[in-house]
Every structure is written in structure tokens, then in C-alpha cells.
Inverse folding.
């Protein structure tokens, strides 16, 4: 523990404000001006991209969106990238969430992209809405999707009457589960869908959850991963390279990644400076005594 | 390895039965009086140090149970709280417990009241020291920060499930000069506690802490049973790594058939066709 | 006009929340409470429209009268606040806990057995060196970290002490990686709000721009 005087607290607060100011200024600069910084697409993003392409026409993609306003900065570009790809590749998909707010965000993104790409709700995609993330619900969903979800969240129509849900009964009819989340909900999909039915699972977590996902990637329980905003930027790069259609973004991930990169440079510099100060101060104290 | 386990295969069933048997066996042995040895866990001695510090300074202790509901992690945190409260009661120190869940609130009151009663000081228990703040993450964090700053807590114990508010709580304690001991199985928050707290109990030590402090036979037996399970799994790992190495050396590095064999072994149950057929 | 109001409200709320960086103030507290209230209210509305209405209310009124028992069982949870009837809440909780414990066996198998099997890798092999280094790192890390978490004996012998110490170092490296990832996540979230302030507010918040 440290005994900290009010004067020291005030000095620390002053220093903090200067750091916040410099950080914000640099990031705004990199956001305002588009720069093509060196960029490499990792194998995890590529794996996810290929997995979407392998989904058959008689299968449905489940886009599970479990994020809310607090993680919009990472989860929204990830969702936007995935939805654009699903529309362009003509893969039918269902939006679903165990968080009340996520499906609403995804629906807004899907409607905006659908208008641009000429897609129709109920034919190209459906929104199953929100269901509480209880084990019993997941087990029911795996066995009987229309019986568990019952109706879509937008039109309140019986799922079985929608063209997009034609032939979709259980987890065996899902070609891919894409989990965009800020929580650890991925384990449920791996345990009770991939582990039991072999459904491929892709993961788009916020950066916080990324290190914990590597054991699943290593064991091939995940087909791929978008690691936070970097993953979204990689996916955007793949879309722009492989499709002759202009991509639109409410929040462009490549430009965001530039701002994140400069923030990281500043943080690393400050850490090095701070540690240098810490160790030289200790050495000076030791020399004095 | 892409395994398909729609039903319990023979290998999985055997392994799970073995692990359950080991754990249950050690629990029954502990309950029958064969209390097992548990090594000293660094960081737990700091709990007594923290209570002592609060007594000397005449300032209260703060104990946060985190953001979990009525689950295993919070139940373990409550066991640690029980120990802290008993030690605090012995030295007539106050323990303030802010809670986030309404169900946990009633359980926490009971734990605290029982602890003070067990030490023969029921009159020292103040119901107002158990405070329901909010079930929203950052509202809870703000409330705890407020308590730490206003009460100038001498020691701060952060045990349970934490998320992004972990560093906020730890920093608030640091600013008032509190001795901070944190314990959480939330891997993503451990780095922040290590950076900001004096002692951090990480990973499985968290579950060992409640066994170590309460000396409850079921907890102790379960912990030792898990140790034996780890030995079993490590042994399987070592044997199979050696087998994989031997295979690779004798088959020119081609591991396809080896992996297929492992997959078949783990997936097989009577009546099931071999994997890949 | 609606878009204008939404963008400006969002901008004011963003700046109000960020004012905490300067110091705590009533404007921050007000918007924090608004946020909490909105999130809670929206969740309750969605719970009704997406869950209770289609899965319980409509089937119950549509002839499946037995769904009323779901209300009874759900109500039993609330008896925890009535000491005389609290035993009812323990009934439903233990049924749920028992169900979760039973299903956990399946979950353990499908989650961890594949990971165990994925660790069966050769450490000497005609494979490329980088693959062998990878394999060796994984195996050493698993063994060392598991050794660190043995509690039934003292880490007295040099071999065990050394392995446990290595396990602790490897854990710290992993925590460093998690720390870095978390910093990246926080910075990414800040980036979005700055984008909103410097791009969305001028383009959507100011008419004719």
C-alpha cells in the first residue's frame, strides 16, 4: 500500500489531464486524416472469412450479437463487416442475442446495408430477437429452433412462414455460428453446438477476451476470430480485396485502427518513460543512503 | 482437435467417473477425519494483516463481493468474508460490505451476523454495514469508491467476479492508502489487481483460499481431489506427448493417422461407427 | 430533424460522461443515472416483447392454460424475502443447480477434452523447427502452470519449486498479454466516441453540412 498526500493526488491528476489531452489530440488527428499504414491480415480473420464462404445454400448462419452500447467501438464494425459479407456472399442469416440490446443494433446495421445491397427482410435475413441466456434455452434451440424462438422480433410472424427459415429446424441446419460479443458467451456455443453437432463457430470478441480464445483456436473448436477492432479492420481489408463493391461503414475500422495504433505508440512511450523514471529514482535514493 | 461428442463416449465416461471418484473419495475421507494438508498460500496471511491494520488505525474494513450472482465464485467469496468477519469481530473492527445483488444482500447479512455471533459479539454487528448499492456495474463501482473515500478504509478486500470496474475499485483503495488484497478467478481482471493491489490471489488459489481459511472438510477434500485429477490429466498428457513424439519419428512426421486414432478413441461408444467413416 | 436531435443528445451525453476525467460533478452523475435508467427500462421492455409475450402470455391465452404454473414457479423464487416461506425458493434453486451440474458434465467433455487432445503433440519430429518450438512451448506451459497450482504438498523439492516458479513467470507473461489486450479494447472504445464527436456531430448534427 502507499500513503498518498493530497498534493501528490493533485499532481497526479494534473499529469493525467495532460496525458489525456495529448492522447485525444493525436487520435483525432489520425481519425480526421486517412492514412494507409502497413497492414497484415492474420490467419484467424482469414479462417473466419473462408468459413463464411463454405456455408451451403440450404444452411442458415446464426449471427449471435451479445453486445451493448458500451462496446460499440469494437463490436459494431465487426458486426457491420460480417453482415456485409453475408449479404454479398448471399448467405441467409438470423440475428439473435442473449442480451436485449444487441439484436436491435444488428437490425439497424442490417437494414442500412440491405437498402444499399437490395436485400429483403424475411427472405435474406431474419431477426430472432432476444432470449435469456439460460442453459435450457440453448438446449431447446439446438434441438428445435422454430419451437424455441417461435416468432421473429420485427414482424412477430411465425418463423416457419418466413422464406429465410425454409428447411431450418435444428442446429444441424446451421452452417456457421458467428458470435459477436463482449462477454464469455462463446463457451455455450462450443460446448452444446460445436461439440455435439459439429456446427462451425466463429468468434468476434472485444480485444479483452482475445487471449482467452487462443486455446479454442488451437484445439480447432473455433474456425476463426476477429480480434477486436483489429479483426474488424482485417475483415474490411479482405472484403475490399475480394469484392468489386464499395463497402460502406458507419464507423470505418481501418481508419479507427490507425488511431488505435498511434495511441498504442504513445502508451508504450509513456510506459518506458515511467519505468525509466521509477528505476533512476530508486537508484538515486540508494546512492544517497 | 475436432471431436464430436453427442453422447458420452466410453473414454469420456471413464475419465469423468475417475475424476469424480477421486474428488468424492477425498471429500469423504476428509469428512471421516483424515484432514488433508494444504500448503500455505501467499496472500492469505495478508488477510490477517489487513484486519490487524484496520484495528490499529481505528478505521473500517471494506469487503467487496464483486458483481456475481448466487454462484460458486460468490459463495467462495462469502466463505472468505465469513473468515474476515470473525477475525474482525475478535478485534472489534467494522466490516463494510457493499453488495450488488438483492439475493446476495440477505445471504451476506446472515454471514456477517453469524460471524459476529460466533465470536460472542453480536452487538457489534451493524445491519447498515451491509449496503445494497446498485445492480448496474459502474453505479456499483461509483458507490464503492464513495464508501472508500468517505470512510477512509484501512483495508480493502476484493473477492469475487469482477469486470471492467476492477481497476476503479483498486485505484480508489490505493488513493486512501488502504492495504488491498484481491482474489478473483476472472482472468481478464487479474492483471489489474496485480498492478494495483498489495496481494493478489490468482486462478485456482481463489478456490483454495476458502478451503484454507475455513478448514471445512468438504472444501479441503474437494481441493485435494482436484489435485489428484490434475495429476491424472498431466500423466495422460505426458504419456500421449511421448507417444506422439515416437509416432512422428517413426512415421516421417506424418501425424494424420495418429490424430485420427486419438479422435476415434475419444469418440467411440458401442454401436457408433468409427470416426470418419 | 429527428436525426439532429439524436446526434446532439448523444454528443452532450458523451461530453457529460467524459467530464469525470476532470472531476466528479453533478452533470456526470445526472447522465450516469439517465443511462442506467434507460438501459434498465429498455431491457424490461425487450424481456416482455421478445420472451414473455410470445413464449408465455400468448400460448397461455391461446389454450395452453398450464403455462400458469410457470408464474407459480417463478413466484417461488421471490419467497426468499419471506423467512417463513423461504424454503420454497430453495426448492427451485436446487432444481436449477442440479440441472446445471448435470449438464456441466457434458459441457466439461465438449469444452476441455478437445483441448487436452490438441496438446498431444510431438516434441521431436522431422517437422519444421518453428512447429516444434510451438509444441514445446505449449507443453512446457501446461505442465509448469498446472504444477504451480498444486496445493496438496509444499513446493520443497528443487524440481517442483523450479517448475512452479516457471509456471508463475509464464502466468505473468499471459497476464501481460491480457493487460495489453484490455488496453487496446479501452482505446478502441475511446476511438469510437472521438469519431462520433469529430465526424458524426459535424456531418449529422449541423444542418446543410
Amino acid at each position: 500500500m502507499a500513503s498518498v498526500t493530497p498534493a501528490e493526488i493533485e499532481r497526479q491528476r494534473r499529469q493525467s489531464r495532460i496525458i489525456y489531452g495529448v492522447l485525444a489530440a493525436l487520435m483525432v488527428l489520425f481519425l480526421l486524416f486517412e492514412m494507409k499504414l502497413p497492414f497484415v491480415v492474420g490467419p484467424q480473420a482469414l479462417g473466419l472469412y473462408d468459413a463464411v464462404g463454405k456455408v451451403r445454400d440450404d444452411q442458415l448462419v446464426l449471427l449471435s450479437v451479445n453486445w451493448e452500447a458500451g462496446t460499440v467501438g469494437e463490436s459494431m464494425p465487426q458486426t457491420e463487416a460480417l453482415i456485409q459479407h453475408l449479404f454479398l456472399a448471399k448467405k441467409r442469416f438470423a440475428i439473435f442475442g442473449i442480451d436485449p440490446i444487441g439484436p436491435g443494433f444488428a437490425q439497424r446495421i442490417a437494414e442500412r446495408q440491405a437498402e444499399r445491397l437490395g436485400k429483403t427482410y424475411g427472405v435474406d435475413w431474419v431477426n430472432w430477437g432476444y432470449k435469456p441466456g439460460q442453459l435450457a434455452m440453448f438446449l431447446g434451440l439446438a434441438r428445435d429452433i422454430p419451437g424455441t424462438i417461435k416468432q421473429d422480433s420485427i414482424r412477430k410472424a411465425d418463423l416457419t412462414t418466413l422464406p429465410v427459415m425454409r428447411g431450418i429446424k435444428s442446429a444441424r441446419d446451421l452452417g456457421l455460428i458467428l458470435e459477436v460479443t463482449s462477454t464469455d458467451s462463446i463457451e455455450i456455443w462450443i460446448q452444446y453446438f460445436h461439440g455435439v453437432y459439429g456446427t462451425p463457430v466463429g468468434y468476434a470478441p472485444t480485444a479483452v477476451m482475445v487471449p482467452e480464445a487462443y486455446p479454442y483456436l488451437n484445439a480447432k473448436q473455433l474456425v476463426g476470430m476477429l480480434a477486436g477492432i483489429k479483426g474488424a479492420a482485417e475483415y474490411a481489408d479482405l472484403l475490399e480485396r475480394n469484392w468489386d463493391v464499395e463497402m460502406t461503414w458507419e464507423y470505418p475500422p481501418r481508419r479507427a485502427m490507425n488511431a488505435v495504433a498511434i495511441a498504442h505508440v504513445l502508451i508504450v512511450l509513456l510506459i518506458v518513460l515511467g519505468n525509466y523514471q521509477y528505476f533512476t529514482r530508486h537508484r538515486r535514493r540508494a546512492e544517497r543512503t | 482437435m475436432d471431436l464430436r461428442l453427442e453422447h458420452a463416449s466410453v473414454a469420456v465416461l471413464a475419465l469423468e467417473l475417475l475424476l469424480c471418484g477421486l474428488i468424492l473419495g477425498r471429500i469423504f475421507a476428509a469428512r471421516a477425519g483424515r484432514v488433508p494438508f494444504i500448503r500455505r498460500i501467499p496472500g492469505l496471511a495478508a488477510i490477517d494483516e489487513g484486519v490487524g491494520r484496520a484495528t490499529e488505525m481505528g478505521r473500517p474494513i471494506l469487503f467487496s463481493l464483486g458483481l456475481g450472482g448466487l454462484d460458486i465464485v460468490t459463495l467462495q467469496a462469502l466463505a472468505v468474508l465469513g473468515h474476515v468477519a470473525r477475525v474482525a469481530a475478535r478485534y472489534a473492527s467494522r466490516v463494510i460490505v457493499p453488495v450488488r445483488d438483492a439475493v446476495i444482500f440477505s445471504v451476506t447479512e446472515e454471514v456477517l451476523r453469524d460471524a459476529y455471533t460466533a465470536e460472542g459479539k453480536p452487538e457489534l454487528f451493524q445491519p447498515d454495514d451491509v449496503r445494497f448499492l446498485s445492480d448496474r456495474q459502474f453505479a456499483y463501482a461509483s458507490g464503492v469508491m464513495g464508501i472508500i473515500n468517505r470512510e477512509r478504509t484501512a483495508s480493502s478486500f476484493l473477492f469475487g467476479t469482477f469486470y471492467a470496474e476492477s481497476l476503479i475499485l483498486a485505484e480508489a483503495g490505493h488513493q486512501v492508502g488502504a492495504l488491498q488484497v484481491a482474489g478473483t478467478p476472472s482472468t481478464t481482471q487479474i492483471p489489474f489487481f496485480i498492478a494495483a493491489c498489495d496481494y493478489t490471489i490468482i486462478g485456482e488459489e481463489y478456490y483454495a483460499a476458502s478451503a484454507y481459511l475455513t478448514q471445512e472438510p468438504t472444501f479441503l477434500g474437494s481441493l485435494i481431489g482436484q489435485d489428484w485429477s490434475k495429476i491424472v490429466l498431466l500423466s495422460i498428457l505426458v504419456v500421449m506427448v511421448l507417444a506422439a513424439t515416437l509416432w512422428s519419428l517413426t512415421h516421417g512426421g506424418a501425424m494424420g493417422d495418429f490424430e485420427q486414432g486419438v479422435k476415434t478413441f475419444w469418440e467411440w461408444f458401442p454401436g457408433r461407427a468409427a470416426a470418419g467413416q | 430533424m429527428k436525426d439532429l436531435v439524436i446526434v446532439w443528445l448523444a454528443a452532450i451525453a458523451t461530453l457529460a460522461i467524459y467530464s469525470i476525467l476532470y472531476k466528479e460533478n453533478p452533470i456526470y452523475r445526472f447522465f450516469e443515472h439517465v443511462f442506467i435508467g434507460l438501459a434498465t427500462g429498455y431491457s424490461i421492455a425487450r424481456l416482455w416483447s421478445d420472451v414473455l409475450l410470445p413464449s408465455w402470455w400468448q400460448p397461455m391465452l391461446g389454450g395452453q392454460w398450464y403455462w400458469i404454473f410457470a408464474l407459480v414457479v417463478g413466484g417461488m423464487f421471490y419467497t426468499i424475502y419471506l423467512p417463513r416461506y423461504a424454503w420454497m425458493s430453495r426448492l427451485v434453486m436446487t432444481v436449477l443447480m442440479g440441472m446445471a451440474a448435470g449438464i456441466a458434465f457434458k459441457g466439461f467433455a465438449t469444452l476441455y477434452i478437445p483441448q487436452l487432445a490438441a496438446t498431444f503433440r510431438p516434441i521431436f519430429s522431422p517437422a519444421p523447427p518453428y512447429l516444434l518450438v510451438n509444441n514445446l512451448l505449449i507443453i512446457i506451459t501446461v505442465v509448469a502452470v498446472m504444477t504451480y497450482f498444486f496445493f496438496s504438498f509444499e513446493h520443497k523439492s528443487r524440481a517442483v519449486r523450479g517448475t512452479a516458479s516457471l509456471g508463475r513467470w509464464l502466468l505473468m507473461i499471459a497476464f501481460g498479454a491480457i493487460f495489453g489486450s484490455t488496453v487496446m479494447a479501452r482505446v478502441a472504445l475511446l476511438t469510437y466516441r472521438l469519431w462520433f464527436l469529430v465526424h458524426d456531430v459535424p456531418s449529422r448534427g449541423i444542418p446543410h453540412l
User: Anything to note?
Assistant: The CA atoms of residues 105 and 138 of chain C lie 26 Å apart. Helices of chain C lie at 2-18, 26-61, 68-77, 86-118, 129-148, 158-205.
